[in-house]
Design a protein that fits this description.
The complex is a heterodimer of chains A (573) and B (178). Chain A has 573 residues and is α/β, with parallel strands linked by helices. Chain A has three domains: 2-183, Rossmann fold (3-Layer(aba) Sandwich); 203-357, TPP-binding domain (Rossmann fold, 3-Layer(aba) Sandwich), CATH 3.40.50.1220; 380-550, Rossmann fold (3-Layer(aba) Sandwich), CATH 3.40.50. Chain A has 24 helices and 20 strands. In chain A, helix 4 (63-77) packs parallel to helix 6. Chain B folds into two domains: 3-85 and 156-177, Alpha-Beta Plaits (2-Layer Sandwich); 86-152, Alpha-Beta Plaits, CATH 3.30.70. Chain B is an alpha+beta fold and 178 residues long. In chain B, the strands form two sheets. In chain B, strands 5, 6, 7, 8 and 9 form a five-stranded antiparallel beta sheet that branches. Chain B has a four-stranded antiparallel beta sheet with strand order 2-3-1-4. The chains are: A alpha/beta (573), B alpha+beta (178). Chains A and B meet through strand 6 of A and helix 1, helix 2 and helix 6 of B.
Chain lengths: 573, 178
């Protein structure tokens, strides 16, 4: 049969729509996809059966898991993540992951089956208007009702997903189009007049930016995922080193610059580091590179960097002036913009200015960091678990985090020596993201140690993906930092709702028993003296490993910028 | 910040669903669309949506930026009232008897420079083009005589700046070739 298919392909190229879909994927270089079968997508699964040597399909345990796994894959590899689901509930289950990918600019192609075209709009079994539903959360979407549309639509989908500011694309294919025959002729998509992926770099703007930077006494760089997406890590480092620019990251930009780089001054935002938040309101020139001034980064906008001249290097024109008024906007791909800018900036060191960051860093260490990493109390903290991972690994791990206190702690304290190594749900804040995203990351970079850091709440949101780990023997390390609370919400209840802990207490099952059922080696640590050994054992273990650490129930994450406060009002306690 | 009326022109490819993609940009920001009109533009295959909203200068910039960003939107532009020439059309259905009675109704129609489109035994359809205030005035004047049916189109507008759509499209098409 396979021989027959190959023969058909090379000689006549006549094939069914579903065969055209899998051959389009192959033509795009896709060898790994995540998904879940069902009625309206069955012909595509049948076609996948014949190309198992070329495309591996990972059966997740829920369609949401398939999108997050595709996201994890995309974020770890820089390639387009692909996921596939059936119509109706299969399609709607993808939405959270698609929304997450949209706000975090992750390239995805999601393929959904749809009822036959003559049934559209009839409330047919498992019919849902997924084009309408996904429109607000996709970069582009399209419904295929005729097989001949498949090669062009898929080529266009991949092109749109990966170019410019990347994002998710959804292709909905009616069942009759999957059965229909077509002459298959795949041509890579070359572009379209209504979509300009990368704006042309203006050298005038670059020169204006350089003039501001060269005149600055207290310049300060904020960098985001744009550096990673443009693969501009080296250009970025060269730029900041030449001009001597202290640089702070958004959680989406984490790992683009080594943690211990002398110009890395830490994390921005609500639970970020003390110095970069405080000094945002003292710098004279603020240089934003591939970031979008999210409200979790800026706090109160009316008191955000008002003293500074703002330079914004950005690929998406609609981000300019969206939140923060820009004095010089440099539109373009960060790699190209940074290269051009580096040529024009003067060599500089800004020693005294950098010293200010170091001074505040010391203050934060004494007030917060020291206690988090070396608690005086016998109650364990989340930070010390991360610290042990730093200590016993080469710091070239991929750290995947979920959403909440443990996420902030993981981002704050994990050390990175390798780019594209932090994967987290930044913009959407999707609990349950971590476990499936870690699976996707591990499958994308099988030789890299992938450690997922999850809270006991988020773990149970997508716990069924343990089944995927079991079936595919995915060697991810799972660290559950268990405080038997929905910790971040509880922290807010403590600080802003007079400790009224409404529905944040978790009565958890025995995770050890559950995980063992999935054949995963498991350990629980509830005393500090056992922590270090357990972390070492996990890191050295060949295969998946589940480490549950019982941490302080009512520990808080500090520093913190309360909602509505200014970045300079960041609290240490 | 003060709100004012803006006319947005969105030029799109001719594809299913683009109206939804355009309209959800407004829905998401809870902006009320005062009027919308769509037709093919002077270039075959490019559709033109004329949308009227009342917003602040800051918000209109962001909204049009988002419209322009949509993959199948060729170009999105906005103009204050001073930069456009615009028009609307309204149709009024009244009883023929009212006009035939020789009273004021006929005078009103004449005074407004309105056109009689169709006369039937029972009813007459009157057409009036103009700005909203003008078509509204005719509505108000005819109302005492009884209006059986009334409909007004969305605003259509031509912009005063001389930059043409074809020059924009040429520029964009060159980018694709390069």
């Amino acid at each position: 049969m396979e021989e027959l298919l190959t023969k058909t392909m090379t000689n006549q190229k006549l094939m069914t729509g579903s065969q055209a879909i899998v051959h389009s994927l192959i033509a795009e270089g896709v060898d790994l996809i995540f998904g879940y079968p069902g009625g309206a997508i069955m012909p595509v699964y049948d076609a996948l059966y014949f190309v198992e040597d070329k495309i591996t399909h990972i059966l997740t345990r829920h369609e949401q898991g398939a999108t997050h796994a595709a996201q994890g894959f995309a974020r770890a590899t820089g390639k387009v993540g692909v996921c596939i689901a059936t119509s109706g509930p299969g399609a709607t289950n993808l939405i959270t992951g698609i929304a997450d990918a949209q706000i975090d600019s992750t390239p995805l192609v999601c393929i959904t089956g749809q009822v036959a075209s003559q049934l559209l709009g009839t409330d047919a079994f498992q019919e849902t208007d997924i084009i309408g539903i996904s429109m607000p959360v996709t970069k582009w979407n399209f419904q295929i009702t005729r097989a001949e549309e498949i090669p062009y639509a898929l080529a266009k989908a991949f092109y749109i997903a990966r170019t410019g500011r990347p994002g998710p694309v959804l292709i909905d294919i009616t069942k009759d189009a999957q059965f229909e025959k077509l002459e298959f002729d795949y041509k890579p998509f070359k572009g379209m007049r209504s979509y300009v992926p990368v704006p042309k770099l203006s050298l005038t703007k670059v020169a204006e930016a350089a003039t501001l930077i060269n005149a600055a006494k207290k310049p300060f760089v904020l960098f985001g995922q744009g550096v990673l997406l443009a693969q501009a890590e080296i250009e970025f480092k060269t730029f900041i080193e030449k001009a001597g620019l202290p640089s702070a990251w958004t959680i989406m930009g984490l790992s683009a610059l080594d943690s211990d780089h002398y110009l890395n001054v830490g994390m921005l935002g609500m639970h970020g580091n003390y110095a970069p938040n405080k000094l945002t309101n003292e710098c004279d020139v603020l240089i934003a590179v591939g970031m979008r001034f999210d409200d979790r980064v800026t706090g109160d906008l009316s008191r955000y960097a008002k003293q500074a001249e703002v330079i914004h290097l950005e690929i998406d024109p609609s981000e300019i002036d969206k939140n923060v008024k820009t004095d010089v906007a440099v539109l373009g791909n960060a790699k190209e913009s940074l290269k051009a800018l580096t040529d024009l900036v003067n060599k500089n060191e800004h020693k005294d200015w950098l010293e200010k960051f170091r001074d505040l860093e010391k203050e934060e260490y004494t007030e917060v960091i020291n206690e988090e990493l070396n608690p005086k109390s016998e109650i364990m903290s989340m930070g010390e678990v991360i610290d042990k991972i730093n200590l016993h690994s080469d710091q070239k791990n991929i750290i995947v985090s979920d959403v909440g206190q443990h996420q902030m702690i993981a981002c704050r304290y994990a050390k990175f020596k390798q780019t594209r190594s932090s994967i987290t749900s930044g913009g959407l804040g999707t609990m349950g993201f971590c476990l499936p995203a870690a699976i996707g990351a591990k499958m994308g970079r099988p030789k890299t140690q992938v450690i997922s850091i999850i809270g006991d709440g988020g773990f149970q949101m997508t716990i069924q993906e343990l089944g995927t780990i079991f079936q595919f023997k995915t060697a991810v390390k799972i660290v559950v930092l268990n405080n038997e609370f929905l910790g971040m919400v509880r922290q807010w209840q403590e600080l802003f709702f007079e400790k009224r802990y409404a529905s944040t207490t978790m009565v958890n099952p025995d995770f050890q028993t559950i995980v063992k059922g999935y054949g995963i080696k498991a350990k629980k640590v509830d005393k500090r003296e056992n922590l270090e050994e357990a972390v070492k054992e996990m890191l050295e273990h060949d295969g998946s490993y589940f480490l549950e650490v019982m941490v302080g129930k009512e520990n808080n994450v500090f520093p913190m910028i309360a909602t509505g406060a200014s970045v300079s009002e960041i609290r240490l306690k | 910040m003060k709100k004012q009326r803006y006319t947005i022109s969105v030029f799109t490819e001719d594809v299913v669903g683009i109206l939804n993609r355009v309209s959800i940009i407004f829905t998401r920001r809870k902006i009320n669309v005062e009027s919308i009109a769509a037709s093919e533009s002077e270039i075959k295959g490019i559709y033109r949506y004329t949308i009227v909203i009342t917003e602040t200068a800051d918000q209109i910039n962001k909204v049009v930026g988002q419209l322009d960003k949509q993959v199948e939107v060729v170009k999105a532009l906005f103009h204050p009232e001073s930069e456009i020439v615009h028009q609307e059309i309204a149709l009024y259905k009244v009883r023929t008897g009212v006009l035939a009675a020789g009273g004021n109704a006929e005078k009103i129609v004449r005074a407004h420079n309105a056109r009689v489109l169709s006369v039937e035994v029972e009813f007459t359809v009157i057409e009036k083009t103009g700005h909203k205030e003008e078509t509204q005035q005719l509505f108000d004047d005819l109302q005492p005589f009884g209006i059986l049916e009334f409909v007004r189109s969305g605003r259509v507008a031509i912009t005063k700046p001389m930059k043409t759509l074809s020059s924009i499209v040429d520029q964009l098409e060159k980018l694709v070739q390069n």
